[in-house]
Design goal:
By secondary structure, the protein is α+β, with helices and mostly antiparallel strands. Helices cover 40% and strands 14% of the residues. Helix 1 packs antiparallel against helix 8, helix 2 runs parallel beside helix 8 and helix 3 crosses helix 4. The two termini are 24 Å apart. Bound molecules: pyridoxal-5'-phosphate. Pfam families: DegT_DnrJ_EryC1.
Length: 368
């Protein structure tokens, strides 16, 4: 039987192949590979998609987070509260912006940043950086209330098109970042990212800082670096953005199908959606009560590309030892890291493929 990948990027490519080829031909004929009309068009389209006035393309999502944080001009070394349960890039961006990561634990039900823990950590911090993990928004209303005017920056790398109470990912914070890493819901053919905001000054700051501090050739107004979007990536992203609402809808249907197929399996719990959230299912992550690693190995042996997001939380990574957190600092996140199992999910996954995943998972669980 053919393997079932965690994500099937070829299937997505097949849908946009013609449009991408025509666009690439156009760019290659023009000889302009950085920024250009396709990047400007994508920025306008992505801003509209996100329900904000401005989008600025960047070289990747980590840079987008760094640029968003830098644009706020917080005092050097100021604390930024972020969840321990996230991809390491969220914390990297804080450090690279000259700020101090203040990690907090997740809530046990949804594994999103826990407002109760945020309330404890915020008094000594200058900003809040929630992560919309796996495709659903962190609880934004409580978080904005707690922030009491401190800037809120959304990490929307996993949540393009997701909503909470009808309001889009990227439109809640003062400024937000996203990633178009190939495996994300909206993925480029290489690295790319974007910052989105309603604030024109912040958008300009991001644009200048990501282009050597320059708005006009040979005039460098502020310290910057190089983080621009490639024109070829904008071509891909424009073609895929048109399909994204339908693709997110297909992900929701696939997640609902997994919910049904996996209901009642012993030793397994399916992911929960925070009330008010319209999920975009970047990842469908179940929790395995016992023997997660054995279950993962069984699935992989059966040709099923299951994964773990993320097996080692940020605070236990060697690179972040300097932050001073020890094992036991964030019990919910640490417990989840030992139980999480990500199942294959992408817009084009078939019912048959999902049934095979569910059968293999049920079989693996009986062996534990
Ligand atoms: C992917 C991701 C990033 C970083 O994006 P890159 O484009 O890989 O730099 C940041 N935060 C989260 C939560 C992510 O999933």
């Amino acid at each position: 039987m053919t393997a079932i990948p965690l994500v099937d990027l070829q299937a997505a490519h097949a849908e946009v192949a013609e449009e991408v080829r025509e666009g690439f031909d156009r760019v290659l004929a023009s000889g302009a590979y950085i920024k250009g009309p396709d990047v400007a068009a994508f920025e306008a389209e992505y801003a509209a998609f996100s329900g904000v006035r401005h989008a600025v393309g960047t070289a990747n999502g980590t840079d987008a987070l760094e640029l968003a944080l830098r644009a706020l001009e917080l005092p050097p070394g100021a604390g930024v509260v972020l969840p321990a349960n996230t991809f390491v890039a969220t914390a990297e961006a804080v450090v690279r912006a000259g700020l101090r990561p203040v990690l907090v634990d997740a809530d046990p039900e949804y594994l999103l940043i826990d407002p109760a823990r945020v309330a404890e950590a915020l008094p000594g911090a200058a900003a809040l950086l929630p992560v919309h993990l796996n495709g659903q928004l962190a609880p934004m209303r409580p978080l904005l209330d707690l922030a009491e005017g401190r800037p809120v920056v959304e990490d929307g790398a996993q949540s393009q098109g997701a909503r909470q109470d009808g309001r889009l990912s990227g439109s809640w914070g003062r400024i937000s970042a996203t990633s178009f890493y190939p495996g994300k819901n909206l993925g480029a053919y290489g690295d790319a990212g974007a910052v989105v905001t309603d604030d024109e000054e912040l958008a300009t700051a991001v644009r200048l800082t990501g282009d050597h501090g320059s708005g006009r050739k040979y005039v460098h107004e502020r310290f910057g670096f190089n983080s621009r979007m490639d024109t070829l990536q904008a071509v891909v992203l424009r073609a895929k953005l048109r399909r994204l609402p339908a693709w997110n809808e297909a992900r929701r249907a696939a997640a609902a199908r997994y919910d049904r197929l996996l209901a009642g399996l012993d030793g397994l719990s399916t992911p929960r959606t925070l009330p008010g959230n319209e999920h975009v299912w970047h990842l469908y992550a179940v929790q395995v009560e016992r023997g997660r690693d054995e279950v993962l190995a069984e699935l992989q042996a059966a040709g099923i590309g299951a994964g773990v997001h993320y097996p080692v939380p940020v605070h236990l990574q060697p690179a972040f030892r300097g932050l001073g957190y020890a094992e036991g600092s964030f019990p919910v996140t640490e417990r989840a890291a030992g139980r999480i199992l990500t199942l294959p999910l992408y817009p084009q996954i078939t019912e048959d493929q999902q049934s095979r995943v569910a059968e293999a998972l049920a079989k693996a669980l009986t062996k534990i």
